């Protein structure tokens, strides 16, 4: 497939590459000139659509724009059809992919040669969120207003509720936040849309590349923070959000983090719905187990008490005059679905929650006065 996709490429060796992703078959190919290539073949139509979307998006980054980015982007150099699905070939971006705990650990490594990793990540997110909306529009990618973002999630909530498999307390919690229109007064920005630790490539403590661009769109900036909600290192998360707040040309909206918690929790419901549509019983059972574990953690820590957000649909009494909500203590104990390991790569990245206090420019009012809920990731 590498030769078919890139004329003149003569493979001499091939090795497995990220073979734990069930949606793709990936290989590292070395050619006769010792150049290294990544070949990624989708296993299903949905994965093929994601790869083709990423191809279009990556081509929308002009050379001039790429040169201004503080990280590399993948570059598609060829493709080939197989069984109606398209395989893509990319030059390898050297580096490694780490779990979020290791990212946080490396962020504490002091080096005179480069900025702390948390600073690099904060700048990376701010760079993405200040990409020109015109670029997204010209690539014919989705552009959602803040109200459209809210209504789309409400529609997805209805679909999730119709499964009858989601604890009612979680549905009430999410509905309360979605019905609170004050939470959704944000400035739509370009967002990566699938930002997780799995899409960050590092060389030691240097963030070298960001990949996984198939869901680039204009929408809610909070979605690019949901992956951080699983981080057990509060200092790492706080530092990222502080740098992000300073880098933006405007202050982040005051409910950015609260919506990030919502996106992180709700990703489990989205995974459940998708698994049901695909008749994937194993994933359905796992999603149900993780949702029950989430509800248990939230209830045990007090987030689902009568005065906590989400216990009464559309309630506004749970929010103080400063916009703060009492959130439960972050749990680091194990659950049936695990507490500190990564989510399956075919699931949405459903992080837990970790508070993040921005700089004085941001001071997000949703920063809780109490500790945060945790979402356990398998």
Please give the structural blueprint.
Elements: H1 2-5, E1 11-16, E2 24-31, E3 36-42, H2 45-59, H3 63-68, E4 78-82, E5 85-91, H4 100-107, H5 117-129, H6 133-138, H7 146-161, H8 168-179, E6 189-191, E7 200-203, E8 206-210, E9 217-219, H9 234-247, H10 256-277, H11 281-301
Strand content: 5-15%
Order of helices and strands: HEEEHHEEHHHHHEEEEHHH
Tell me the strand order in the biggest sheet: 1-2-3-5-4
Radius of gyration: 21 Å
By DSSP, the count of extended strands is: 9
Helix content class: 25-40%
Number of helices: 11
Poorly predicted runs: 307-378
| Biggest beta-sheet profile | 5 strands, antiparallel
Q: How confident is the prediction overall: mean pLDDT?
A: 80
What is the straight-line distance between the termini? 33 Å
Shape: globular
Your description of this structure?
By secondary structure, the chain is an alpha+beta fold. It contains eleven helices and nine strands. The radius of gyration is 21 Å and the shape is globular. The two termini are 33 Å apart. The model is unreliable at 307-378 (pLDDT under 50).
